[in-house]
Amino acid sequence: MLSGSPKESKDAGKPTLRDKVEDLVHKAFWDEAIESLSNPEPSCQLPRIKSLYEDLLIALTPLLPPQNPVITTLSSPLPPTSSPLDSAIMHLREVVTSLRKRCAPVQDEELDDLLRSLDEPPPRSSRPISLATLVVDTVKSILRISDIMKEQLSQFVLGSMTEQQLQSTISKQAKTKERKDILDIWKSWRIEFSWLTWFENYQLSFQVDGAAAESQLKWVMRLVQALGSSTPICCQLPTREPQSIENSLPPIFFFSTPALLEIQNYLQALVIAASLRTLTRVPQGVQASDATSFMERLWILLKAEIVEEPGSGDTKLVHLADEVVRARQVDGAILSAEEETRLRAAVARTLNHNDPVFVLLQKRILKALADALGHQRSESRQTGAHTAPARMQTGQHGKHAEKRARITIVLDPKEFDAAYGAETPQLVIGRVQGFEDEYLRKVVEEVFVKVDECVRWVEGVWPDVLQAGVVDREFVV
């Protein structure tokens, strides 16, 4: 429903029980502060003023430079005085004046009102509660205005970032949260145990050599092995009685599992396409009348099955066989009923994961994937990955109003994902026998790039586990 009933809209504006409780707690806090400051004894006032200063320091630190006198005042011990409230009013005036120089124009009027009230405080002859109320109300206003300014500053920083800087920040935050969530759910000991257990089933169906055979890339080869399995990839959530599920990935792959499952399906589809290509006799360069090649049409059918388009699964085998028969007849040859029956039976056999042609082509594509990933990471180690500059700065150095402090935003490199947008060696894919078709080679490259992206993501979140098999609790993404 796009809109609720009038009663629902009316109820939505009413404060919740939580709102009421929070209001009561806040009111009690400020009432207690006024009561403490109303006590004429400095020994009673000074501790409460110091506590308020600490709250102000936390709120103002993101808005003011460390060398600002206000920060120094708020963080220093309070000097002994016979009139703590007078000193507090003087300090609060400095705070408001400093904020006045940095705030947006929309806050000018409110800060000017605060300055006027501080410039004309109640006379000392008045009741102590008057000065106490002025101090507390001013602190409340400063805290509220500082929250608004921090929100404005956050929007300003985001607006000043380049597209790449913004995406890098989002990537860093996503990796940090992913690591935290997985550690919270599985705990370190489960992650380490599942990692060791996963490696016990290391058994490649193809021979690796060169960079792919290096020990630090063994986990990548183990992942390629999982992608080549006929059993769908999965990642178990922790339970009291864990079940042994075939082709289950360690917890560090939890958030990457959906992408890896899709890649697994694409790899199988590539093998199917290459297998069916062996059943055709299409002359090089010949295309169907609709200007769409046999391999393109075949891939449309296979991809529809992967993305689960409605109705694709029921007729997939029939459609694949139709395309093979059509490709055999593209040069004008006419198949007899017996030949067509044998051809359709061959198509059905080819889709079997135990078919010799399927097994051979799968070994070739998996070895090509392993070699490409291994070679690229070897190149990265030799050349060194390009990282973000040590200091990133944004903002303009043009004219600015005299009463405003010029804001120059220096972006902390720690807030960025150093791996995002890093210059890395290109993924080199050699000739894969059986996958030479021009359209098929393009799809192979796209799928390999998807695998590389998943591997790089995991490398950025869990380098400790990948390198030593142990969770480093001190590691920061």
Please provide a written account of the structure.
The chain is mainly α. Helix content is 60%, strand content 1%. The protein is built from 16 helices and two strands. The protein has helices at 6-12, 17-38, 42-60, 69-75, 84-102, 108-119, 128-160, 163-200, 218-227, 257-277, 294-306, 316-328, 337-350, 356-383, 438-461, 463-468; strands at residues 392-394, 409-411. The protein starts with 5 loop residues before the first helix and ends in a 9-residue tail after the last helix.
Helix content: 55-70%
The profile of the biggest β sheet is:
2 strands, antiparallel
What overall form do the CA principal axes indicate? elongated
How are strands sequenced across the largest beta sheet? 1-2
Structural class comes to mainly alpha
- C-alpha end-to-end distance: 41 Å
Assembly of the depicted chains: single chain
Number of helices: 16
Number of strands: 2
Taking all residues together, what is the mean pLDDT? 82
Radius of gyration: 34 Å
The SSE order reads HHHHHHHHHHHHHHEEHH
Q: DSSP strand (E) fraction?
A: under 5%
Q: Which blocks of ≥5 consecutive residues have pLDDT under 50?
A: 1-10, 385-410
